[in-house]
Structures are given as structure tokens and as C-alpha cells.
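Hey, sorry to bother you again with one of my protein questions. A protein chain has come my way and I'm curious about its shape. It would help a lot if you went through both lines with me. I owe you a coffee for this, so here goes:
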Amino acid sequence: MIVKPFRGLRPPKDLVEQVASRPYDVLNSEEARKEAEGNEKSLYHIIKPEIDFPVGTDEHDPKVYEKAAANFKMFQEKGWLVQDAKPCYYVYAQTMEGRTQYGLCVAAHFEDYMSGKIKKHELTRRDKEEDRMKHVRVNNANMEPVFFAYPHNDEIDAIVKKVTEGTPEYDYVAPDGFGHHFWVISDDAINNRITEIFGAMPAFYIADGHHRSAAAALVGNEKKNQNQNPNHRGDEEYNYFLAVCFPDNQLKIIDYNRVVKDLNGLTAAEFLSKLEKNFDVKKMGADIYKPDHLHNFSLYLEGVWYSLEAKKGTYNDNDPIGVLDVTISSNLILDEILGIKDLRSDKRIDFVGGIRGLGELKRRVDSGEMKVALALYPVSMKQLIDIADTGNIMPPKTTWFEPKLRSGLVVHKLED
């Protein structure tokens, strides 16, 4: 894999908590407006610049992208983002519920994405790619990192351990309760060795940020073609984009659950009866029931929790897609019984990240907004890697990684 250190653009230590934000795609415009209220230094003014316009302004309006660029320039002029004097790698660690995962912040090469060495497990939508491409173009920078996994490596673990024994540049707990810790690696010998180790790796895996990855790579390719001349070398800064790479053995995928508005004309009794064709259905009672192993599901309907155990023969453990519980539930419950054919477009279904807990499923059903909830056992990193390695694509809304990367700890400019 081609990676390199870069001259990161970062907030001064005393401003990091004011600048750093959640990623652009985990909250809507109104939520961003509320979080940034009274804070002119919030990165939301760059990554969700519609908050600087009247409520209801189209976030895809050209003037909104222009505002992002103007705000980015202002942040640099005011010293809210300051560029490091020399190229560095950075260690970015996150703590959630007592567990810490350690990533390396790098500049990754767009050619590795184009060639398939940066491996995907989700489809991307062209409209979302184009939105992020416009954002990268207008700022001439990657404002937010993508989240990669790599096959864990003992030597990198040892390097990271040594670096993190030193005092972090940033060390704070965000409002969501997750800890964020950040170290700058300025030692050239260490940085050269990191480059060499990653250079021998066969692949990176996109954990989170498929649209950002696609957009960054496409802009890099655009700039290559625009600048194609005898002087083009392939190592110019525009060939690279911002990524945080975590070892696969430190990452944890949490569940991604479903809520449905109706039972497709069935009564609750008829629905439960139809489930018995492919599942062993067991009534669990009023207390929340969480799936505890592969091919076990949790269903909430009319105030009662049920355990669903997929029967032998309804899945294929030798098929990287067929083994997934999201495939089983999509085919045998959502499609076959409830008539939901397209998870991307059907308005009768919604998705709830496991970070909200199963209590959120209960709340949405009890409120009458939804009729039934389905909780899934989370996908494993091994399943994700198997799918990416075989060139397959996961069904929509399969993986939820937490904690999310904080945006604004470091920015990568496409011109050094």
C-alpha cells in the first residue's frame, strides 16, 4: 500500500475541543446548527456550511460550497487551523466503554483505490460521491478522514505503543463520552519505517467512509488528468487523501437494526405464524432481549420480545454473503413476509444503529411510529474482510462502527 506522512493542518491544543466535530454524515443540518450554536470555531462551519444560511437552505447550493471554502480560509487566517512545519504521521486513539483502539493517520494514494487494493464492502451512490467531490474541490483539501482497517502487524503495534507512551498532543473526552487522544510522530526514522511496513501490505479495507473514499480518489484522478504533463510524477500531494488506519483486531462492529411501519396486511398472529416456516420462534416476554450469537435474531412486536433462531438450511455458512444475518433477515422476513424488496428505497423501513441501544427500537414501536422491530447480531471483522476479499458487496445498512472518527483533529491539503 502506498502511504506517506503529510503536513497536517491542525487546531492549536487549546482550541481542539472547539474546532473538532462529529462527521458530516452522522447528523442533519439542524442538529449541526444546534451543536455549533455560539461556537464560530466549530468545523461544522466548513463541513456543514449550510448552518451559516437561513434554515431550509439547500445544502447543495453552490453558494453553500463557496461558504465552506471561505470559512476554511478564515480558519487558517485566524490561526484556528495551523499547518505542521514538516510531514508527519499521527496516532489517533479512541476510547469507548473502557476499550481503546489505536489508528495511524496517513496520506493514502488514490491509485490504490482505483486498482482495488483499497477494498470496499458497500455500494456508493453517485449523488453522494458528487457532493463530497465538490467539497474536496472547493477546499482543495480533505477536511475529514476515512476509516480504514488493515491486517494487524506486530511491528506497527510496537511503534504505536512506544509513541503513545509520550504525552499526547490532544487528550479529551467529547460530549458523547468518547475519549480522543492524538500524538504527532515527527521522527523521520519512525515515519520511514511505517511507510515501509504499510508498503508491504496487500490491502486496506474501508470500514467507514465509502463515499468520502470514492470522492477523494476521483478528485485525485481528476487532478492527475488535469495536470498530466512530462513533469507529473505521481507523488504530488493531490495524489493522496486523508485516512486513519486501524488494525483489524482492535475494531468492533456493533449491530445495525431495523424497524418497519406495518406487517404488510397481516395480523400479529399471522406474521408470527409465517415466521415459523424458517425460524424457531420463542416468546421472551416484556424485558429487552438481545441476540447473543450468529443466526439468532430479536423481534419486538406489540409489547413482547421474541427470539428467532434461523433453521438449518435457511443459510449458507460457506457463502460470504449467505452467512450474513442481514441477508437471512432481508430475504426471509423483510422480503418474503413483509414485501420489502429494496432496503435503499422502501419508505416502510428505517434503520437504527446499535449505539442507540435496543431501547430505541422499543420506543419507536411503542410510540406507534413503527409496528415491529428486528435486532441483528453484529457482523464480525472477519466477515467484512471475507466479503471485501471475494469482491462481494454487503447488503445496505449492515455495519456500524463506533466510535466515529472526530473531524478536525487533522486536515490534509491537496497542495503542500
Observations:
- The chain is about 30% helix and 25% strand.
- The CA atoms of residues 299 and 374 lie 5 Å apart.
